Amino acid sequence: MKVLVAVKRVIDYNVKIRVKPDNSDVDLTNVKMAMNPFCEIAVEEAVRLKERGVATEIVAVTVGPKAAQEQLRTALALGADRAIHVETDERVESLGAAKALAKLVEEEQPGLVILGKQAIDTDNNQTGQMLAALTGLPQGTFASEVVIDNDKAQVTREIDGGLQTVELSLPAIVTTDLRLNEPRYAKLPDIMKAKKKPMDVKSPAELGVEVASKVKLLRVEPPAERQGGVKVGSVDELVDKLKNEAKVIS
Amino acid sequence: MSILVLAEHHDGALAGATAHVVAAAQAIGGDIDVLVAGENVGAIAEAAAKLDGVSKVRVADNAAYAHLLAEPTAALIAELAGDYSHVLACASTTGKNVLPRVAALKDVAQISEIIAVESADTFKRPIYAGNAIATVQSEDALKVITVRTTGFDAVGEGGSAAVEAVDFVADNAQSTFVKEELAQSDRPELGAAKVVISGGRGMGNGDNFKLLDGIADKLGAAIGASRAAVDAGFVPNDMQVGQTGKIVAPDLYIAVGISGAIQHLAGMKDSKVIVAINKDEEAPIFQVADYGLVADLFEALPELEQKL
């Protein structure tokens, strides 16, 4: 079974972001970028499926600027067999990305597509679900366990209040939650080998899709700052402040 | 304009979150219909009809919609969406699962987790783990939106909307429900609690979370956790507060043994009053805490419980 894994280049999750002074967007110049953490989990799951003999080939894909090839190389170093880069400098959000991915699903005919549940930049949590709708495939979102059995996938999902297990016919779309697995690190020899693995570059026009976001970003601003607080010296003082100053307990 | 709100429900009862989504719909303006989908949902529909501001409750009561699986539920909403300018659901795991699928079926964008309504097509939403607030405008004829419930005060209950049945039954050969394992708790729901007390890695192990029980009981609080505590296996993941867990905004949030990583702050920094108890006085949590106590939690927690 062929597995398609979608990855996204995002700001590194440890970076404290800055809003541009003109409030047009977040400032990404000279900021450390990385593979979205949920995408790392998606790649890891694909690699484990291959190690278990379930997956035969792993194709890593991304939609974004030229620099996103770094993240595809990372995926190749982690165990993906080849990569496809849909190159665009447009501001792409979920629907555009899902449309490009749907074309790749049509071309590649994978048995399973794995994505992260959300990207930590836009925090949308949409692309996997949209890809499932566009391809007419079932979806297993927020997965904390995936078991492939013949032509079915049993997906355990993290839902509010606990866990839910659903059975999906294959092919299917799965999005990863944090506890699905612990991603491995790329080893130096694998990073070297990844440079020789094949990478196709396509344009959205070649795929026949429009990827630019139709949602206008009017303004980006920092959130309201919290007032600086005080340190209290004892539990007594804390209880007193909560009762008499903040009045949140009685 | 007319707005369709997908009702959130659990265990045969309408979830409080729905009243917050109706409030967001009121801020947009227009007729508000509530869709109750599921199996044996008559009582839930009656509860939804009582919400202030609701014109009509549409009930899709069929085994096809049991557990609100994404495939049939999205097909149902897409079928009804032609009558509406906006489709709203709360940003729960159900809303997040279903609404993007609806949006793609209708070839429109979806706007996630709005916290404010500027106009019928312009909304505010947090991005980058809540470290920036984006104002976005949708050019689509149909706006498909999930609502962060902490951004809107719930509407009251004085309404008496008409209830009518929806005949459409989606066929679904692709997905089947297997089982659910829900965490049992007598405490208030994390997302709706007025007081939340959360433990982090500093709790040391799962047993030590019992130190929070007595305080939670005295304050009527829900108990939460940081991702570190969940990943370490101290507590189940549905207790996680943060960008990847639940977003809470209680009157009082007490963070115990939590350093205050960006990911955690994204889930709780809209709380009215934040208290941090941590033995590391350099911990970033103290930068957002209204009241900080630098102390060993194993001494501070029993003392706090006794003095409440």
UniProtKB/TrEMBL annotation, chain A:
PROSITE patterns, per the entry: ETF_BETA
All copies of domain Electron transfer flavoprotein alpha/beta-subunit N-terminal, residue ranges: 23-211
Keyword Electron transport attributed: yes
Gene3D superfamilies hit by this protein: HUPs (3.40.50.620)
Keywords: Electron transport, Transport
InterPro entries: ET-Flavoprotein_bsu_CS, ETF_a/b_N, ETF_b, ETF_beta_N, Rossmann-like_a/b/a_fold
Keyword match Oxidoreductase: no
Family under the similarity heading: Belongs to the ETF beta-subunit/FixA family.
Protein name listed in UniProt: Electron transfer flavoprotein subunit beta
Native source species: Halomonas gemina
Lineage of producing organism: Bacteria, Pseudomonadati, Pseudomonadota, Gammaproteobacteria, Oceanospirillales
From TrEMBL, chain B:
Keywords of the record: Electron transport, FAD, Flavoprotein, Transport
Pfam families linked to this entry: ETF (PF01012), ETF_alpha (PF00766)
Segments forming domain Electron transfer flavoprotein alpha/beta-subunit N-terminal: 3-181
CDD domains (alphabetical): ETF_alpha
Superkingdom, natural source: Bacteria
Keyword Transferase appears in the UniProt entry: no
InterPro entries, per the entry: DHS-like_NAD/FAD-binding_dom, ETF_a/b_N, ETF_a/FixB, ETF_alpha_N, ETF_asu_C, ETF_asu_C_CS, Rossmann-like_a/b/a_fold
Classification via Gene3D superfamilies: HUPs, TPP-binding domain
UniProt similarity note: Belongs to the ETF alpha-subunit/FixB family.
Name of protein: FAD-binding protein
Organism of provenance: Halomonas gemina
